[in-house]
Amino acid sequence: MTETREGGCACGAVRYTLIGAPLFQNHCQCRQCQRIVGGGHASYLTVRRDAARVNGDAAQWAMIADSGFAKASVFCPRCGSPLYLALEALPDLLAFHVGGLDKPADFEPHVVTYAAGALPWDYLDPAIPRAATTPG
Ligand SMILES: [Zn+2]
Ligand SMILES: [Zn+2]
Predict the structure, then answer these.
(1) Quick check: 47 and 97 in contact, CB under 8 A?
(2) Most CB atoms within 10 A, among 5, 31, 49, 92?
(3) Ligand 2: distance of its center to the CA of 35 in Å?
(4) Distance from Cα 53 to the centre of ligand 1, integer Å
(5) How far is the CA of 66 from the centre of ligand 1 (A)?
(6) Model's pTM, two decimal places?
């Protein structure tokens, strides 16, 4: 049986299904993620773009990531919840915010990206490997 994950925004206007095992799971402590989620880090579960089925009218805004590439933050225009990131440099992938999953405990972060941006009060499990920026 193929594993699937369901999720959506806080108000329920946008829902999604992710099919198959995630490719990458990480916390990110870059400044943009801190602003997007309004906290110390964002937590992402990355899947292939064709493994995601998104229902509802999501909105997006484009920005230049700390890496220098364009990326889009996709969010619900009704409640404002961030849903996922689409990265220009990795067009086949989408990085979903773990907090939007219906079962957010089902998350195993492999790495902390942009750990150089860690805030002193944002404690993460020291056993998780750190990358100062991206894992390369
Ligand atoms: Zn919403
Ligand atoms: Zn980030």
Answers:
(1) no
(2) 5
(3) 9
(4) 16
(5) 27
(6) 0.94
Pairing status of strand 24-28 against strand 111-113: parallel
> 111 CA to middle of ligand 2, Å?
12
Question: First CA to last CA across the chain, in angstroms?
Answer: 32
- What pLDDT digit, counting tens, does each position of 21-65 carry? 999 999 999 999 999 999 999 999 999 999 999 999 999 999 987
The whole-angstrom separation of Cα 32 and Cα 79 is 20
Alpha helices in 10-115 (DSSP H): 31-37
How far apart are the CA of 82 and the centre of ligand 1, in A? Answer: 9
What does the alpha-carbon distance between residue 96 and residue 93 come to, in Å, rounded to a whole number?
10
In angstroms, rounded to a whole number, what is the distance separating the alpha carbons of residues 74 and 1?
Answer: 29
Q: How far is the CA of 135 from the centre of ligand 1 (A)?
A: 31
The model's pLDDT over 71-118, given as tens digits with 9 standing for 90+, comes to 999 999 999 999 999 988 899 999 999 999 999 999 999 999 999 999
Helix segments in 1-128, DSSP class H: 31-37
